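User: I've been trying to design a sequence by hand for this structure and keep getting stuck. Would you show me what you'd pick, starting by listing the structure so we're on the same page?

Assistant: Good idea, let's start from the same input. This is the structure you sent:
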């Protein structure tokens, strides 16, 4: 009997990794190499290799598992910052509003001097409230003041982080004479406020060549600070402010000019990327490996004006405080912005209270006609990870583009494999490939070779810097396609392949005495053969707090976008690929165009137009799928209405409109608002909560989501005609599996006297007899020209509180 040769220990680890990979994928789970927090970090794209994506440095840690490391307790300031929300302003004069805030503080602190010392911000433009440094006992005492509606702690928030417009059908060339971009003169006259990490004003994306005068309604300004002055603004960048007092008051060591620019200047890079994506000017002849010569980069509304409100600072990858963000909202409303793009948010795992983060100031902005666009968050692909869930916020999911970066791996027998990489160095001629997971003898086996490593199973990660340090000349990293990549040194090949390719390569290492491979620089391919997916990092619905309100609302490209980056000592290249935060400004730029095209539309009407005309497929007709573990077709909890279709959105036919009364309905139903809170929020003492018999299911959102169906439910919606005056619409129902859905009336008729019509949808459990998961369908109203589609999401709950 032939004796089986012993397997090398490093190869044995590779084999174990493969086995683990198969088991994990067969069970639909991510490998153990995936970090507990699955989201891409700010600025990191699916292919960009950012420092934040790298695993923690364990080189200084002792291997002795018996050592217990005491966690460092978090810093708690003696006088933390608390935020007090008082509702709508009672005075038009901001000075009188501020004085009323000082009087409230004085009632607890005893003197105006102490009140002034305590005050961090007075919110006196867009709404009424203040932030103050107080002892917790003093804050609790102030909470009982009759004018205080809400008390908030100053929570920390985080940043949620070219080809895009061609992909969406809004072509990049400035000479195009068709479509929404041309009809709105590329967004000329719109003012887009960006609440983010600042801006690098010297970038070509903020050039103001050919711009007209600054709009007359603009009241903002450009403030001076570290390496920034009013001369850094122009007709493109018309406003730039910064807010840091709220964050600094709660930090053990204050941010200073040695670690950040105490000015609107961007040190993090996130704000510059967001600003250029939403409204960047045309930049010609963009040079980046893999792009064709003469490529053009631009934002969604390239002739719109930008106002930057810097609230996020280069601390722990990008940190913002609620107090600072609220002040930015307060002043942006006053300054005269038309749209707000806010790529920040908190965690989905928070107290179930709508009165937090950006929801309240966003409501005041929306009530004044300013759409607020924010991300669904980077908590994907976890169920119920979506953030920014309030119905007045336009919440954006992220998809990939129809673009890929394949790198060719060639064997000596000319068999080829494709991996993903951004390697731009010279071709690496035929070189030994070894598979190892053993870190103990890398210096002996790695030199001059390409290392293949399985980033799954029980093995520690093999990072590019480790391979390079030990003399290796390349790394083939076998992992789930949806896992985050790590930073790769310049001109060092880091090639990512899936388990199928990795296993085949591994087989060759076992059947060949010395396997040699050739590595070629990457090439860019794009078009219909590259699948579009909902990004792994994009947070998913439903909202755990308010599952009857569908979130996210809409999806847009947010991965591997080309945007300008700030120059650094380490990398002076002007352009880089950015991350999932970019989906938000893509939508904000489109909203700016829609607002110019339809100046009388409310923020809710704009949202409805986007949701009801969105695509369930990519632009080539292929169904969108999801990235992140289990491969499946995307549904409403992944992308809301679907992938944005900006040309259809300009002529939706019908819209599901809402106003402050609808939002009050939501607050009373979901946040337990009282009549007193409602009247303070609106500034109208006659405003009250709707009757107790009104249901949250009847909120006029462009979707129907019923999370707890027991027998049957009838919901009501109304639509407003924004198309031809005389129109007749008929319903087309895609019924969720096993349920029964009936719509009445069978026709919606519109004329000069009747431009708004209500209808009812009766939903029953149909054939279902047990608690189910969510099933998805849709309702479309069609007049033969317009198809106005809303998602339907249904789940039975015959037994309450039974975990499914």
């Amino acid at each position: 009997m032939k004796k089986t040769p012993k397997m090398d220990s490093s190869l044995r680890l590779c084999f174990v990794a493969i086995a683990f990979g198969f088991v994990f994928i067969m069970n639909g789970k991510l490998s153990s190499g995936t970090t507990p927090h699955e989201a891409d970090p700010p600025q990191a794209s699916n292919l960009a290799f950012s420092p934040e994506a790298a695993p923690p440095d364990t080189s200084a840690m002792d291997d002795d598992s018996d050592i217990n490391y005491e966690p460092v307790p978090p810093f708690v300031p003696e006088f933390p910052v608390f935020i007090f929300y008082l509702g709508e302003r009672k005075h038009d004069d901001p000075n009188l509003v501020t004085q009323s805030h000082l009087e409230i503080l004085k009632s607890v602190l005893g003197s105006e001097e102490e009140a002034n010392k305590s005050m961090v911000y007075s919110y006196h433009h867009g709404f009424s409230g203040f932030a103050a440094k107080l002892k917790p006992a003093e804050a609790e005492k102030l909470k009982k003041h009759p004018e205080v509606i809400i008390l908030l702690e100053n929570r920390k928030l985080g940043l949620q982080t070219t080809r895009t417009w061609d992909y969406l059908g809004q072509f990049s060339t400035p000479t195009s004479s068709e479509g929404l971009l041309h009809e709105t003169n590329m967004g000329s006259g719109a003012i887009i406020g960006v609440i983010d990490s600042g801006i690098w004003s010297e970038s070509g994306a903020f050039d103001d060549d050919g711009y007209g005068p600054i709009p007359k309604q603009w009241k903002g300004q450009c403030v001076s600070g570290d390496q920034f002055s009013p001369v850094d603004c122009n007709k493109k960048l018309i406003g730039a402010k910064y807010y840091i007092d709220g964050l600094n008051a709660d930090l053990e060591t204050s941010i200073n000019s040695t670690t950040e620019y105490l000015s609107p200047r961007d040190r993090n890079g996130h704000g510059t990327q967001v600003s250029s994506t939403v409204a960047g000017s045309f930049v010609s002849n963009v040079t980046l490996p893999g792009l064709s010569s003469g490529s053009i980069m631009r934002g969604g509304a390239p002739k719109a004006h930008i106002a930057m409100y810097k609230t996020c600072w280069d601390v722990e990858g990008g940190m913002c405080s609620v107090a600072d963000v609220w002040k930015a909202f307060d002043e942006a409303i006053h300054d005269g912005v038309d749209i707000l793009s806010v790529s920040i948010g908190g965690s989905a795992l928070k107290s179930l209270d709508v009165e937090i983060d950006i929801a309240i100031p966003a409501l005041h902005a929306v009530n004044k006609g300013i759409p607020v666009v924010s991300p669904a968050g980077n908590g994907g692909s976890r169920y119920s990870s979506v953030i920014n869930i309030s119905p007045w916020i336009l919440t954006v999911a992220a998809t990939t583009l129809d673009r890929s970066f394949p790198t060719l791996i060639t064997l000596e027998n000319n068999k080829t494999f494709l991996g993903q990489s951004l390697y731009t160095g010279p071709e690496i001629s035929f070189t030994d490939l070894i598979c190892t997971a053993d870190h103990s003898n890398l210096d002996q086996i790695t030199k001059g070779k390409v290392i293949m490593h399985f980033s799954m199973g029980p093995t520690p990660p093999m990072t590019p810097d480790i391979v390079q340090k030990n003399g290796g000349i390349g790394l083939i990293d076998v992992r789930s396609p949806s896992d985050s990549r790590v930073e790769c040194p310049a001109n060092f090949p880091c090639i990512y392949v899936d388990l199928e390719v990795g296993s085949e390569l591994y087989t060759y290492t076992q059947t060949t005495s010395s396997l040699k491979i050739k590595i070629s620089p990457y090439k860019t391919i794009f078009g219909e053969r590259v699948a579009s997916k909902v990004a792994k990092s994009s947070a998913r619905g439903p909202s755990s707090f308010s599952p009857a309100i569908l979130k996210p609302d809409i999806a847009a490209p947010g991965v591997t976008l080309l945007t300008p980056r700030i120059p650094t000592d380490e990398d002076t290249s002007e352009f880089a690929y950015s991350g999932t935060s970019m989906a938000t400004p893509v939508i904000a730029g489109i909203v700016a165009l829609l607002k110019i095209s339809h100046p009388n539309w409310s923020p809710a009407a704009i949202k409805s137009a986007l949701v009801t005309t969105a695509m369930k497929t990519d632009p080539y007709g292929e169904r969108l799928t999801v990235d992140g573990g289990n491969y499946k077709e995307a549904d409403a909890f992944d992308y809301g209405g679907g992938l944005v279709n900006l040309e259809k959105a300009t002529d939706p036919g019908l819209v599901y409109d809402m106003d402050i009364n609808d939002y009050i309905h939501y607050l009373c139903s979901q946040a337990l608002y009282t009549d007193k809170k409602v009247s303070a929020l609106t500034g109208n003492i006659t405003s009250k909560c709707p009757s107790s018999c009104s249901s949250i299911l009847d909120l006029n959102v462009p979707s129907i989501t019923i999370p707890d169906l027991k027998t049957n439910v009838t919901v009501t919606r109304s639509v407003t005609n924004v198309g031809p005056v005389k129109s007749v619409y008929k319903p087309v129902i895609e019924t969720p599996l096993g349920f029964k859905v009936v719509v009445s009336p069978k026709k919606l008729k519109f004329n000069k006297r009747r431009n708004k019509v209500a209808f009812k949808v009766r939903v029953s459990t149909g054939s279902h007899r047990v608690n189910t998961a969510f099933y998805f369908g849709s309702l479309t109203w069609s007049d033969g020209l317009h198809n106005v589609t809303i998602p339907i999401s249904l789940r039975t709950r015959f037994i309450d509180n039974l975990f499914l």
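That's my pick for every position. To get oriented when you compare it with your attempt: The radius of gyration is 28 Å. The first strand starts at residue 81 and ends at 87.
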